[in-house]
Structure formats: structure tokens, C-alpha cells
Amino acid sequence: MLRTDLPEIITETLPGPKAQAIIDRREAVNPSAIKCVYPVVIEKGEGAMIQDVDGNKFLDWIGGVGVLNIGFSQPEVVEAVKVQAEKYFHGMYNVVTHEGYVALSEKLTQIAPVKGNKKKVFFANSGAEADENAVKIAKAFTKRPNIIVFSGAFHGRTLMTMSMTSKKAYAVGMGSFPDGVYRAQFPYYYRNPEGMPQEAALDYYLNSIKDVFEQCGPADSIAAIVVQPLQGEGGFIPAPIEWVKAVRKICDENGILLVADEVQTGFCRTGRMFATQYWEEAGVQPDILATAKSIAAALKTIEIMERDDLAGRSCEIGEKVSKRFNEWKEKYPVIGDVRGLGGMIGLEFVKDQKSKEPYPEFSAAVISGCAKKGLMIEGAGTYGNVIRFLAPLVMTDEQLEAGLDIYESVIKELLEK
Question: Whole-model pTM?
């Protein structure tokens, strides 16, 4: 059964012949901007496993970049989709009310750790749209024109969210961009300015917000500060709780809304249903929460997540992965930092641990080498030198160990060259 199988490559080369033929067809009709570096053409997926058209089996630790927290083809979700499809595919909520929309909204108001006793929910088509509409709401409510975002942030590829996103490689030739989007420094403690003592770091990053008030737009012109509880594309960097508490204080003192972008961190990924539950446990809540990805057939998905305690499973997986990664950090000088929350863990590769010089060539080689052995992993980070761990939370312990063994074997082989 594919759901419990282990990685297995049966073709002499990757992609296999059937996959190569389809990839060739893809290249002929799809733009190169929608690129894919993996030699995989999926035929079916179950749990954390993919079987390609040639019969190769891959363990997927990308999970649709956080979409597949409950894995491929969860039978109860498949059945829920079938039942709905037999009723109607679409009912525009501006035209007809449907009970499912109401019921999901009610559920999210119960579980979202958002400030206030009365909460409202609405749905958009993507994470980028959720982020963009969060900004619209903040501007409409505060009657203010500007927002603050952070270095390393990724919020999407619409015009507004490209402006909010730090890495402008995603926006080449797409300007001009909306004004009133100001950027402060995200607390990337592993890469504090050289010579800075750790005890000075919190003030340094908070002062960068205050610098925005001085240099870009006064505090009373800022509608929202938008924060990812753990940066995804930016390199799997968790926002330190002491910094979040201080940012909440800045917002409260200046009438600014705090927006949490949980597009990648939501739905059990970090060991809580939402990463901002860690904030809530520390006495802090956002005013607006934007989330997406692992929410397909959402009522059934959330039911399964709560029933099967996938948040707890995320913590369990995260502990095992962090333990192995930290052991590797002691053995292999190319590993500079291990960080994350729950089952959302990043591994940062460097040329040496003292200089911390980014080593994107090595991380790219690890990704390629793992794919050849049946493990799919993906890069991230401002410098392209982080590999993210976003595996479906339903993978077996045997699959977890098999994936970690493949991962380490590739690191060792590359270092021995």
C-alpha cells in the first residue's frame, strides 16, 4: 500500500522514460516561469508518498509547501469532496447563502487565536489574497494609508503582496509598486550584525521599527504591522516571543493593528492549530489572522486534525527531526543553524560555522541528491541556503527514519567528494 511504503527508485535514470515524455510536453506548452526542478511526474499520492508514472516511489517532505498537512488522498476528505460535488460545485456567497460557509466560519471563530470576543471570518482564493485583504481591512478600519512589513518576508505574488514580499527576485520587471509599504528588520538572531551581543539584539530589531516611524511614515500613519510567526520563504525563522510581545505593545500604544500571516504556519504545522497560539500562551494575540494552504475541504480537515491530534504529532515529529539535525550540526561543519517550531524545521547550510557564509550551492546539491534517492525536499532563505522540512504530518515513523537516513547519506557523500 503506497500510504505506508518507503522510497524506492526503480528506473535507471530520473526522470524515467514516461515521466520524461510528459516533462517534454510540459516544456512545450507551459511558460518557463512556472518551473519545476524535480524529476517527478505524479501518478498518485497517498499519505506522504508519491508514485510517479514510471512506478518510482518518493517520500514527499515538501507537502505542497505546507498544503498537505494531512497528506495526499485522505479517504475521509475524498469522501467529503464527493458528497459536496454531488450537491453543487459553486454557489457564490454574494448571491446565495450556503450552510457550509457559515459552519466553517463558526468553527474558525472558535479556534483562531485572534484578539477580541467577537470575531468575523471571510474566505478568498489564496494566501496572497488573504494577506492583501487583511491589509485592506486594516486600512479601512484605521483610516491610515501605510503598513510595515519585514526583511525576509514572503506574502504572495499579487501586486500588493509582491510589494510586501522582501525578496524582489519574485518581482523583477513587475513595478511600479504601491507606495506606503515600509520595511523593518525581522529578528534573525542567527545573523545578528557582527559583534553584536545577543542581549542587545532585541532592542536593535525593535529600533528598526521605530526607525520606520522616523524615516518613512509616522506611527499615526501606520495601519498595520504584518508579521509571519515563522518566516517560511525567508528561511524558517521563528519570531521570538519577547519580540512579538514588544511589537504588540508598539501597536497598542500607537493604534496600529497587528496582522499575523499564517498562510504557511497554520493548521497544525508548528505544533499548534495556529502558530499564534504560542503568542496567545504568552499573553499576546493578533488583531487579524490570514491563513491558507492546508484548508481544503476544511470542516472535515479540521475535524481530522483535532480528532487525530496532528498538532501533537507535529511536535513529536519536530522533536525527532530537531534531534537528528542537531546531531548533524555537531558532525558536519556545513550546518550552521537548526531552528523552527513543531514540525516546521529549517536547516541552514554555511561554508563554515565560524564565518556563517551562506552555502547555497551545497543546499542545492543536497536537494538534487535526495531527489535521486526518492526524498523530495525544498530550499528557502534569503540567501538560498536553507532547506525546509514541511512533511505531511501523517507519515509513518518508518518513513521519517528512512527520509532522515537518505538526507544524511547525501550530506556525507557530498562532503566526501
Answer: 0.96
For range 106-123, the mean pLDDT? 96
Task: Look at residues 417, 292, 293, 303 and name the one whose alpha carbon lies nearest to residue 361.
Answer: 417
Residue 177 identity: F
Cis? peptide before 368, omega within 30° of 0: no
- Beta-sheet pairing, 237-238 with 230-231: antiparallel
Gap between the terminal Cα atoms of the chain:
37
Question: How does 250-278 read in b/e, with b if 16+ C-beta sit within 10 Å?
Answer: bbeeeebbbbbbbbbbbbbbbbbbbbbbb
| Cα–Cα distance for residue pair 286/119, rounded to 1 Å | 12
Q: How far is CA 324 from CA 196, 307, 389, 403, 405, in A?
A: 29, 28, 13, 11, 10
CA 98 – CA 82 distance, rounded (Å): 17
CA distance 387 to 373: 17
**Burial class of residue 393 (count of CB atoms within 10 Å of its CB; 0-12, 13-18, 19+):** buried
Cell representation of residue 146: 501605510
Tens-digit pLDDT profile for residues 343-381: 999 999 999 999 999 999 999 999 999 999 999 999 999
Please, are residues 156 and 226 in contact by the beta-carbon 8 Å criterion?
no
Q: Which amino acid appears at position 368 of this protein?
A: S
Residue 176, pLDDT > 90, answer no
pLDDT tens across 178-208, in order?
999 999 999 999 999 999 999 999 999 999 9
